[in-house]
Amino acid sequence: MRLTFFFVFLLFISSSTLATASPPPSPDRYLSSLLRRPPRQHQQQDYIELSHPLPTDRLVPSCSHLLLNHSFAYTYGQPPTSVPYAPPSTCPPPWTYVVLDLRVAVRGDQYDRIAGLWLGGVELLRTSTAEPTEDGVYWRVRKDVTKYASLLARSDLDFSVMLENLVNADFEQETKFENSIKFQNNGNDKKVKQSVTSKTEIKITNVVGEVVGQASLKRKYPLKVITSTRDMGNGTYHLFTNVDHSLKERFSSGNISSSLTNSQASDGWMLVHDHNVLSGEAKTDQSYVYIDNYSCYTRNVAAVNGQLTRDNTSFICPNYW
Ligand SMILES: *[C@@H]1O[C@H](CO)[C@@H](O)[C@H](O)[C@H]1NC(C)=O
Ligand SMILES: *[C@@H]1O[C@H](CO)[C@@H](O)[C@H](O)[C@H]1NC(C)=O
Ligand SMILES: *[C@@H]1O[C@H](CO)[C@@H](O)[C@H](O)[C@H]1NC(C)=O
Ligand SMILES: *[C@@H]1O[C@H](CO)[C@@H](O)[C@H](O)[C@H]1NC(C)=O
Ligand SMILES: *[C@@H]1O[C@H](CO)[C@@H](O)[C@H](O)[C@H]1NC(C)=O
């Protein structure tokens, strides 16, 4: 099976403000074509991930800068793909915002994999690829990389991308893990419940030991999976699956707090004969609720058999905050 990855990296450089958001100073046809989805061969499916919008989402970028357009095939055990980097000559620094825009299209039989990208050895992004369908899937990842502006202004660096399994070991935190698995009905019904909580505390003290700064990050990842199998005889069976999982995060630094709840509930069934899926259905519901001292953001998305049935976004704060 042939595996094809297309990665397009773009830098959006904005020097306009919300009030002056208008067509770019020098209309950039290249940009407008890039802003659209990747070329759709067959019926590629759009994978969406709920996340907080970026402050630049309502701005028109002054220019875009293509960093790499690459097809990754068999990269296992290979060195990262590296290209020389130079900032765009058409829109020199200083920049107000810089956003990294990654577009990926994948087709074929492929597991999810961890990918990382670096500029001059500095990690700009670490992400994971999705498992594609046969017709292919595509998605976008955007990240505000304004804080790397001094690096992005240099032209003596290499831009590298690695698409392989990577291990990240530089977190210091307290993690609790609980897992229970129940088998019922001769093992035809299985129930898995798992809960992971992590807590990271940072304290900054001055020379006389007084606390001058404090931050805390608490995360919970509850997960519940229920599967039931019903044998229909003659090598045919029905498989029912229900998956509920969430990320619950509380962050506080000084007198500023934020909370995020990102939950997904999915249900599906399939009829299988000799390892072939004869029929099936799946539905999923996801909600993303972010609240901090200055803003709120909620998005609710539902899909049935891969088709979006609801997509609601709100910036109104729930009144319990
Ligand atoms: C990326 O490369 C592919 C294949 O060479 C091409 O079809 C596509 O137009 C390129 N995209 C951009 C943004 O240059
Ligand atoms: C297997 O049995 C089920 C019901 O018991 C029946 O509906 C189905 O047609 C059979 N399938 C095959 C491939 O024989
Ligand atoms: C929050 O903390 C900042 C910095 O410590 C301080 O300047 C500000 O007055 C505080 N605001 C409130 C409402 O307590
Ligand atoms: C931010 O919200 C938290 C939680 O409600 C509250 O304790 C804190 O005082 C708020 N900070 C500011 C600066 O309003
Ligand atoms: C969004 O939610 C409102 C009220 O909750 C509902 O009336 C509306 O139909 C929803 N829109 C979509 C596209 O689902």
TrEMBL record:
It holds the Pfam family PNGaseA. Residues 61-243 form the Peptide N-acetyl-beta-D-glucosaminyl asparaginase amidase A N-terminal domain. The lineage of its organism: Eukaryota, Viridiplantae, Streptophyta, Embryophyta, Tracheophyta. InterPro entries: PNGase_A (IPR021102), PNGaseA_N (IPR056948). This is Peptide N-acetyl-beta-D-glucosaminyl asparaginase amidase A N-terminal domain-containing protein. It comes from the Eukaryota. Residues 1-21 form the signal peptide. Keywords: Signal.
